[in-house]
Amino acid sequence: IEKNHDLLCADCKDIRTTFWIMIFASVHFVLSHLPNFNSISAVSLAAAVMSLSYSTIAWGASVKKGVQPDVDYTFRASTSSGKIFNFMNALGDVAFAYAGHNVVLEIQATIPSTPEKPSKIPMWRGVVVAYIVVAICYFPVAFGCYYIFGNNVDDNILMSLEKPIWLIVMANAFVVVHVIGSYQIFAMPVFDMLETFLVKKMMFDPSFKLRFITRTLYVALTMFVAICIPFFGGLLGFFGGFAFAPTTYYLPCIMWLILKKPKKYGLSWSINWFCIVIGVMLTIIAPIGGLRTIIISAKGYKFFS
Hints:
Its main location: membrane. By secondary structure, the chain is mainly alpha-helical.
């Protein structure tokens, strides 16, 4: 939103990032009160279409722009420690991009399932299609845009593009819709967890009032955190490793080994243990890299500015 404001109204007075975050959060103060995944299906579909659209615009516009004359493909950091920490943060970014299996389980729980027609069949097809779409969206952006801009590429590639203005404005609008949908999809399991805890453990009555207060407070909390730490790249790396790596990369493997008990040292056993080791390492090192990136970015940042 802020980028579109700057492109369309270059002579206008700058608006603080804090206000843009509050504007974004205001949408979620409304959407967060939709009751379940089925009720946000239209939002989810719009987000998926927007993701494919703006990623195509990003790499297409970058290729059209051509390789920049001062392109540099070396590491951004000049020290060995900086290179290592940036690599850690990059792993967290990848983990974040390909995470979300906790949401997948929540979605599968809404699909009718019988012994004759188990929900895992259509769910598996959906997951395969989803990963293909994600690959189509992200790989051209990752390879193509790095080839064009080198290590000067921005965390958000659209920030590196300025012309044609109408196309970049449209792509940024698509990003807004996508992020709005993504927020709701990732927040829905959190809402369910919080409300279940309050009802079953804290003995609150399940009601609209409880849902309204819980979800409003959650959105307000995330808005406050975003205002305090508006560092996109660092947060992706931190939460990619800390929050999403366990539920995506090794807890499912542990569950599989416990339930299926595959032959020790067999193919299935070995693959799952490999994923567990890699996942645990990712959970440890990615948040370290992300936290360092946040600390470096925060050096010149004034809170609530």
